[in-house]
Amino acid sequence: MKIVGIDLKPLEVSLEKPFKTALREVTNLKTYIVELYTDDGSVGYGEAASTPVITGDLEGNIKDAILNYIFPAIKGMEIEEIENIMNKINKCIIKNTSAKAAVDMAVYDLFAKMCNKPLYVLLGGAREEIETDITVSVKDPYDMARDAKEYVDRGFNTLKIKVGIDSELDIKRVKTIRDAIPKEVKIRLDANQGWNAKEAVRTIKRMEDMGLDIELIEQPVPYYDIEGLKYVTDNTYIPIMADESLFSIQDAVKLLSIRACDIINIKLMKCGGLYNAQKIISIAEAFGVECMIGSMMESGVGISFAASLACGRLGIKKFDLDAALLLKENKVDGGIIYEKNKIKISKDIGVGIKGIRY
Ligand SMILES: [Mg+2]
C-alpha cells in the first residue's frame, strides 16, 4: 500500500450552544478533514482543528504544512514502513502539531486497514468503551448550574467546569453547581490558564476548605509558567493537571521529572498524533502519573482516533472527549458512537469511518 494522494477538505458544523472558556468562545466547528490515498484504492481519514489561542495553528498554516511539507515528505512510502513515515512527518517541519496529527491519524487508519484490524486493537485493545465527561461553559453561576443539572439528567456523571475568569466568582460558580447536583457526580475544573500562581493557590485552598469535592484542576496558570504550575501543585491537595503546558514528549519529561503537575492531559492536536501520544503515555507510566485524553473542538473523526487510543491503552484513566457530542449535527458516517456518557468504539477495520457528509 503505497501513499499516492491526499485531499484536504474543510468541514463546518454549528455547535448546539456556544462553547466558552477563559481563552475563547466558539459557536461553530471549523476543521480540516484529511483523506490520504494509497495505490490499492484505500483511504485513511484524519482531522486537523485550527485552535489559534492554544496551538497557534491557523487554517492557512494547516493547509500549507500538509500540502507543501508533510505530504511531499511521505509520498510514495509504503504504509507498512510506518516508523519511517512517522519519522518523516515529525522531522519535515517543526511545530504544526495539528497538521501532523491529521496525517498521522490517516496513516494509522491505513495501517490498521492493511492489518485488517480495528485501530484500537493495534493500539493495545484494552477495552471497547469509555465514559466521557461533558463540558459546562463558563457563564453566570446560575446559568452554569442549570447546564450542569441538564447534563446530569442526560446521564453524565462527570462534569468539566470551565473557570478562570475572576477567581472570586469562580468559587461561587463551583459552589452553585455543587449545590445543584447529586454528591456522587464528579466535578473537574479547567481554569484554562486564567489564574496566576498565588491566586490559584488561594482559590483552590478555599475550594478545599469549602468541601466542594473537586476531582482535579486543569491548567490553573499560563502555559509558560512551569515554576508557577509546580508552586500550585506543591501547595494544594486537589490534583493539578497540565494541559496547555504540555505539548511534546519533551514537555512530558520536563514537567514530570520536576513533578510540576500530578496528572497530564494528552490531546492529539498538541502532540502531533497517535505516534507521539503513545510515547507520552509510556513516559507518564514510567513516572507513575495518570493521563487524561482530551481534544480540541473536533468532529467525530478526531474523536474516533482519540477514543481508539483511549480504548487501546490503560495508561489513559480519564476521558474528556465530548467535543463531537456538542455539535448540532453528526456529519461523520462510522467511527465512535455516543450513548449518553459512553463512547463505544467501532469494531470495523481501521478507525471505522465510512465517509463524511461535507
Ligand atoms: Mg484544558
From TrEMBL:
Required cofactor(s): Mg(2+)
Enzyme nomenclature, EC number: 5.1.1.-
InterPro entries, A to Z: Dipeptide_epimerase, Enolase-like_C_sf, Enolase-like_N, Enolase_C-like, Mandelate_racemase_C, Mandelate_racemase_N_dom
Catalytic residue positions: K162, K267
Any GO MF annotation of the entry: magnesium ion binding
UniProt: Mg(2+) binding residues: D190, E218, D243
Ranges where the Mandelate racemase/muconate lactonizing enzyme C-terminal domain occurs: 141-239
Swiss-Prot/TrEMBL GO biological process terms: peptide metabolic process
Alphabetized UniProt keyword annotations: Isomerase, Magnesium, Metal-binding
Cofactor remark: Binds 1 Mg(2+) ion per subunit.
Residues holding substrate: R24, T135, K160, S295, M297, D320, D322
Alphabetized Pfam families for the sequence: MR_MLE_C, MR_MLE_N
Domain of life: Bacteria
Keyword set includes Metal-binding: yes
Tagged with keyword Isomerase: yes
Homology family: Belongs to the mandelate racemase/muconate lactonizing enzyme family.
Classification via PANTHER family: O-SUCCINYLBENZOATE SYNTHASE, O-SUCCINYLBENZOATE SYNTHASE-RELATED
The name this protein goes by in its record: Dipeptide epimerase
Naturally occurring in which organism (per UniProt): Thermobrachium celere DSM 8682
